[in-house]
Amino acid sequence: xxxxxxxxxxxSQGDGVVSSLGRDGAPQAAYLPITATDRAELVFDARATSxxxxxxxxxxxxxxxxxxxxxxxxxxEGVADLPDGxxxxxxxxxxxxxxxxxxxxxxxxGVVLVQVRLTWARYGDYRxxxxxxxxxxxxxxxxxxADEWVLARxxxxxxxxxxxxxxxxxxxxxxxxxxxxxxxxxxxxxxxEGDDVAQLVAIDGDTWVGSVTVLVQRAGTLxxxxxxxxxxxxxxVGVYVRPEHRGDGLIDRLLDAAARWSRERGFDALxxxxxxxxxxxxxxxxxxxxAPSGVRFTGSIGPELEMVRPL
Length: 311
Ligand SMILES: CC(C)(COP(=O)(O)OP(=O)(O)OC[C@H]1O[C@@H](n2cnc3c(N)ncnc32)[C@H](O)[C@@H]1OP(=O)(O)O)[C@@H](O)C(=O)NCCC(=O)NCCS
What we know:
eight-stranded antiparallel β-sheet; elongated; binds coenzyme A; Pnp Oxidase, Chain A; Aminopeptidase; 2 domains; seven-stranded mixed β-sheet; 9 helices
């Protein structure tokens, strides 16, 4: 099953069992009408006062099982969100497309719409004559390929237009967008091969949604700030996740991929610099196992602190 087939399967089944975590951590399950958006998020509605909404507000992790009746099932895990604004409209369109009979309930103020971004899914087929179970490729994290320099450049330019770009990246959009293609070709081909730099990208279907780059700084050279490097180290730079994937755990997966790549090359720590005012990035790094090393410095974007994750 691929992503498009997952969407079609959820829509054809139209219901499933949603499990959330109660206050004491015990699982609680409910059977509900469920559909899928074009981006493969699951959507259902529930009363704002229900147990499951209280649970999801406290801990957004959910497990969902769709199907089962004919011997096929889709087991899913994901992160729930109660969307508003344009996101809610997009989910509401998917929901009403599947369940026009529930239009009145969606306009009821006591009912909330829940969107689940899937982090994992497995399709099983145990109909007579079948016996298979396989993970559905939802979102892939892998090293960039040399010929993908246009996609890499587009993601970078989008990152540089982010509201927080001024406290996140050393480069400006104006400067980066004026660079010749050759620079991006060269940068991407170096990040695609070898042991000095690796760009790891997250691809959701065919959309590039996030990226981290690991730079290896060798002892005896100068680092990107121009300071001498005393001990070879692996440093994460260019951390970016598109807004629609923030808060869904993608950054943890990207940082795990960076950690794996570095560990495989013999490093025992991964470090990075983060602006002292970039509280969101610091929060994400802390959760991913980074801690402040005590080193502080002032770079071109202002005061930064170093954070390190032991590998
Ligand atoms: C930095 C970035 C990759 C983090 O990814 P993310 O998906 O947004 O991160 P998450 O939401 O998973 O984690 C952020 C954490 O900080 C917390 N947080 C969010 N805003 C915060 C704030 N203003 N103050 C303190 N903590 C905050 C969140 O609660 C969360 O911690 P928790 O999981 O312990 O609750 C992403 O926001 C991004 O691309 N930002 C723009 C570019 C950027 O800043 N890059 C980093 C350069 S160093």
